[in-house]
Amino acid sequence: MLFLIIKRILLGFITLFIVSIITFVGTEVLPGDACTTYLERQAFGEQLEACYRRLGLNVPAYERYVSWALNAIQGDFGYSLSGEMPIKDVLGPRIKNSLVLASAAIFIGIPIALILGIITALWRDKLPDVAISTVTIFAMTIPEFISATLLILIIAIWLEWLPGIVIVPTDVSFLELLPNIILPVVAIAMIMTAHMARMVRSSVIQVMASEYVQMAILKGVPYWKMVFKHVLPNALLPAINVVALTIAWLLGGVVVTEVVFNYPGLGRLVIESISNRDLPTVQALAIILASIYVSINLLADLLTLMLNPRLKTLQIRK
Amino acid sequence: MTDIIQKVKNLSIGFRSKKGDEILILKNITTNIQKGETVGIVGESGSGKSTLALAMMGYVKHGLYKIGGECQFNSSNLLEMKSKDLEKIRGRKIAMIPQNAGQALTPNLKIGYQIDEALQLHSDLDETEREKKISELLNKVRLPSPETIALRYPHELSGGQQQRVAVAMALAGTPDLLLLDEPTTGLDVTTQAHVLELLNFIAKDTGTSMVYVSHDLGAIAQVSDRIIVMYSGEIVLEGPSRDILKKPIHPYTHGLLKSIPKLSLAGLPESMPGSQPQPGTIQGGCSFFDRCNFSDDNCKNNSPKLEFLKDLNTSVRCFNYEKLMNENEVSQTVNKIKNKSLDKEILNLSEVSISYAKQKLLDQIFNRISDENPTVKDINIDIKKGETIALVGESGSGKSTILKSIAGLLRTKDGLIRFDEKRNLSSDLKERDPNDLRIIQLIFQNPDESLNPNHTVEEIIAQPLKLYFGLKGEELKKNIIDLLQKVRLGEFYTSRYPRQLSGGEKQRVAVARAFAAKPDIILCDEVTSALDVSVQAAVLNLLQQLKEDFGTTYIFVSHDLAVVRAISDRVAVLYQGRLCEVGPSNDVYKFPSHPYTEVLLGAVLEPDPDIKPKLVAEDIVEEKPPEKGCSFQGRCSRIVGDICKKETPPWQLTESGNAIRCHIPIKELKKQQF
Prior knowledge:
The complex is a heterodimer of chains A (318) and B (674). Chain A is mostly helical and 318 residues long. Chain A has helices at 2-29, 34-39, 45-55, 61-73, 87-122, 127-141, 144-158, 174-208, 211-218, 223-251, 255-260, 266-275, 279-307, 309-317. Chain A folds into two domains: 2-73, no CATH class; 91-317, MetI-like (MetI-like fold, Orthogonal Bundle), CATH 1.10.3720. Residues 314-318 of chain A have low confidence and may be disordered. Chain B has 26 helices and 26 strands. In chain B, the strands form five sheets. Chain B has an eight-stranded mixed sheet with strand order 6-7-8-3-9-10-13-12, sandwiched between helices. In chain B, strands 20-21-22-17-23-24-26-25 form an eight-stranded mixed sheet, with helices on both faces. Chain B has a four-stranded antiparallel sheet with strand order 2-1-4-5. The model of chain B has no long low-confidence stretch (mean pLDDT 86).
C-alpha cells in the first residue's frame, strides 16, 4: 500500500516535470519573447540587450529552464511583465478567489447532485425522475455563457437583487466578496450539478439492478437500510473520480464564467495573461493548474483504493 | 394430504412489448409445494423457471408484472402483499440461495456482517449470541475456520466457498422454504457435488422444504423428490422424480433426457431439432409442436391442457402422452464416432511451460520469461491428424491456457509447439505468418461475445475468406452460402445480425467462421457450455459431421466430462497446469486411473436417481501449483508419503495404452479403486 502511494506520487512528479518542459518549450518556440513584447517598437539595439540582461534571457535555454524550475519549486515564478510585480503576489489573491468560488460551488453542488441523482434513480421512470431528469438535461446543455448572461439579466438587471458583475479589487476580503459570488456560483453549480446528478443516477441504477441488491431484497432487508448499506457505498465509489475531475476543473478557474462575471479568479488571469503575452505568468499558471489536476486525481485514486475492499486486497497481495 | 407450504394458483407473469402487446413469461401456473419435500423445477433458459421461483417469494423483476393468479404462503397472497409485510417473510419464512453467489454477495460488506444482517432481521438474539450463531452457521456449511472467514470480503473466497456462505445466509433465518436458483451452476464438478451433498444433508437435517431450480437434470436428479418440467412458460410435466427421469411421458422431457451425454456411453447423443420459441411468438397450438416427434394436426391447432393422471400421480400437458407410456425406459441411442484418425502426427507439444507471472524489467529487456513455478509445466502431447483430443480439468487446471498458447495468444515459456513435425509454433501471433494463423482456428465458449454484434452473418463469415483466400464478389457469396449450409443454416441467414439468432444458431455461425479458413486444427474452448442441453447435442453432432467431412483435428476443452466422453477419441486430464493422465477415452473413463481422474469422474452428476456421485477428495481450492512433487498432492486421498511431496511422479503405462503420472504402481491403484 505504502509502496503504491509512493509510486503514485512519483508518477505525479514526473507528469509535472513533463508539463513544465512542454510549457517551457512551448513559450520558447513562439516567435518573439518577453522583451520584444514589452519594448514593442523600441525592441532593438541597446535597449533590447539591456532588457535581455535584466530578465536573464541572454543565457542558453536549458540554463534558463533549470534556474526557472529551481525557483518555481520554491514558489518563486519570477516577475510578471505587465504588472512588474512578482507573479507570486499576483497569483496569491487569484488562487484565493478561485478557491472561494470553487468551494462554494462544491459545497452547494455536490450534496444537491448526490440527492438528485439518488432520488431519480430510486424513483426511476416515475414522476420525480422524469421531472428532475428533464431539468438536468436542460441545465447540462445550456452553455454557461448563456445561463450566466440570463442570470445577470433576470436577477441583476430586472430584479436588481444582486450585483451583475464583480467590481471589487482583487484582494478584497471574504465578506465583501460574498454577495458578489452568488450569481457565478449558481451559474457554475448548475452545469456541474446536472452532470454529476446524471452520473450518480446511472451508477445507482446499475447497482440497483445487480444481483446482490436483489439478494438483499430477498433476504428481507428493509428498503432504506438496503439503499444505505448495500446500494450507495457501491454506487458512489465510481463517482469519486468524477467528483475529483469536477473539483480540479473548478479550481483551475472556470474561464468562461469568470470572464462573464468579471470575477478576479485564476480563469480570468489565464485569459488576461495570454492576451498580454505575459509569458512568465502563463508558464506559472500552466504549472499550477497541472499540479492541481495531478494532486486531486491522486487523492481521488487513493480514496477509491481505501474505500474499495476489492482493490485494497488486490494491491496487498501483489 | 400433507401440509401445503406454498400454493401457486393460475399464476401468469409477463411484460408489455413495445407494440403494447402483453407477452407472457409464465402462463397460468398452478402447483403446490408440500412441507418437507424438495421440488426440482427444470427447464432451459427462457422457460420461466427463475421467474416462477422469484414469484414464490413475492418478487417480480423490474420490467415484468403480474397479470393474474396468486402465490399463497400461509394463506396470504405474496404478490398482493405490502413490502413491509414481505420483509418479515423474506429471509425468515422463505429464503433464497442465488445462482451466482459471487455476484449476489454485496462486495463492500464482510461475510460476517452479511450473515449477521439476516440474523438481526429475523431473530431475537443479542450480539454475542449472534456472533456464536454466525460461527455455527459457517460450520454447518463446512467452511474452514469460521472466525476468519467471517472477517473476509466476498471476493476473497473461492466460488464454492461463496456458495456456502450464501447457503449459511439463507439458513440464518431458519426458513420453512428454501428456494435455490441454479445454486451449483458455474461451480467445478467436484465443488458442485459437494454443495449438493450439503444441501441434501440440510434438507434432511432441518426438514426444510426446497424448491430447486436448474437446467441441469443431473443436479435435479440428486436432490429432488418431485420434478416440474417447464417449457416456454408452461408446466409440461410434473410428477415424482424417479418416474420423470426413468419414464418421462412428455415428448420434451423424453427428448431432453435422450440428448444428455452420459459417462457410461461413448458416442454422441441424439439431438432435438430447433430451439425453444421466444416468448410471444407462439400462435396457438402446443408450444412444443415444431420440435416434437409425436405431433399431429391436433397439436398444431389446439393447445393441450395440463392433465392429472391419478394412477401415476403425474400431470402432463400433451395430447399424445399415451404413445410414450408404452415406451420402456428412455433408451438412449448414440451415434458412435467413426475413428478415422491417421497415424500422422499433426501437432506436437513437447515440454511446454507457460507462465502468467509479471515479468521484471530486466527480463523484458532480454525478452525472456523467468518463473520458477509456471502456471503450466511439462506438457507433452502428440496430436494425430483427424483425432479429437480433449483437455479436461477444473477451473485453474490450465486447459484454456494451453489452447491460448497453441493459438498464439500467449507465448510459451519453454518447450516447443510443432505443427506437422516441422513448423515451429512456439512463438506468439506477431511472429506467425498468415498461413500459420490460418491452419489453427478457435471457437469460443460464448458466441454472444465472440461474434461482432454490428456485423451481419455474411460479414462475419466473409472475413476469413477475404483474409486468407482473397475471395471477392460472386465467389465470396457462393462460399459463404456453402458454409452456412454446411452448418445447417439457410441462405436467408446472411443478412441477419447475431442478436437476431438463437444461442445455437450463433454458435453455428462461429463454427462456420472457423471452418471458412479451411484449418487443419480447430480449438474448441468450452463450445457447448453456454448452450442449452437440447441444443448442445445438435452442435456436438454438427462438429462431428464436419470433422468427418473435412478431416479436421479438434482440440476440445471442457469441464463437462460427459460431453468429453461423447465426442473425444483421446483425453488429457490436467491438474494445476500439469498432466495427470493421457489416454484413449475408453480407457480413461475406466478404472484404474489417476487419483484425480477418479475424483473428477466420481463427482459427475448423472440424470439418474440411482447413480449417486462419489466424493473422494475435499474440494479445496489451491491457488498455485506446488513447487515440487506431484501436482495433486494437496487433495489426493491416496497419498503414499513424502515421495508425493518431493518427487515429480513418473509416467506409468497401463495395458491398454493409458499413461498415468502417479507414484502408486498401477496394480496397486487397480486394487484400491475396485
